[in-house]
Design brief:
The strands form four sheets. The chain has an eight-stranded mixed sheet, sandwiched between helices. Strands 8-11 form a two-stranded parallel sheet. Strands 9-14 form a two-stranded parallel ribbon. It has helices at 11-23, 40-49, 81-91, 107-110, 112-133, 167-186, 208-217, 237-247, 282-293, 317-323, 331-345, and strands at residues 2-6, 27-32, 63-64, 71-75, 95-98, 137-143, 190-195, 198-199, 222-224, 231-232, 235-236, 269-274, 280-281, 299-301. The longest helix is centred in the middle third of the chain and has 22 residues, at 112-133. The chain is α/β, with parallel strands linked by helices.
Amino acid sequence: MKILITGTAGFIGFHLVNKLIKETDWQVVGLDNINDYYDVNLKYSRLQETGIEREKITYNQPVTSTKFARYRFIKLNLEDIHNILALFKNEKFDYVVNLAAQAGVRYSLENPHAYINSNIVGFLNLLEACRKFTPKHILYASSSSVYGANKKTPFAVSDNVDHPISLYAATKKSNELMAHTYSALFNLPLTGLRFFTVYGPWGRPDMALFIFTKKILNGEPIDVYNNGDMKRDFTYIDDIIESVFRLIPSIPLPENNYHGNPSVSFAPFRIYNIGNNSPVRLLDFISALEKTLGKKAAINFLPIQPGDVANTNSDIKELYKLINYKPRVKFEEGISHFIKWYLKHYKT
């Protein structure tokens, strides 16, 4: 088997590569454009952990891992349709997991074009490549942000998601619609993954846990929005990766009784929540972080920001029914794992 994972210099993609090269005998190809949305040194460090040496990386030239002979990496933009099609033609992938995207709700307020180029144009190019070269199963990252202004919790995949409140969320909802169209027109098996607040070692510097940890250690105040009245369905990276890993061979089939449920279809199409189903008050999360660091945080309480959702909570019944796996890592344990990694990586 041969699998393409996009976004492998990123947080989730990096961890999925590690899982696949250590627990399968598959050929793994990673792809990333290594953009500068956040510190590229962290991205190159992730690649180095999987044996991809920074000085060997050049655009559109595959690099073989020095640690895992079955893993190769290619620096490539999904917007580069010519080279994406050539890659698919040469490699003939059995599976594709698209984790590449322009992430971040707040950044989408400042730089909307980056989201259209990466999340819409890039995803379209990937779908076109899959249409022409027909892998067995295509999985792609969506987001809990698609639930937007929904008030009913926990968020269920059967819920309507027509009221996004950020451009980032709108692009992820668009990805789901684009995926359904290609699934229906070309019989492509496509599965959407709505991730809920992923955290853990090697996480993104624009995420709350990373920001809070850095500022508390530096003696700087942290900004807490909506005056602290926030809940998040924090989901540890290992639970995310185990769920995705089990979903890869779970190829969706057409569903006859799909009416009224937007997560299934007459086409080979599915959408799943991948979350913890156990929301945590943000202030409790900060308290656990303070306890682990042995240091109190100075907090600036601020109003909610545009695009933010006050509460997230995932209904994961459909996912559990399929893969027989529920998240196992409690947030206190997950925070401890992250802090251990952070202190080692940044030598703090």
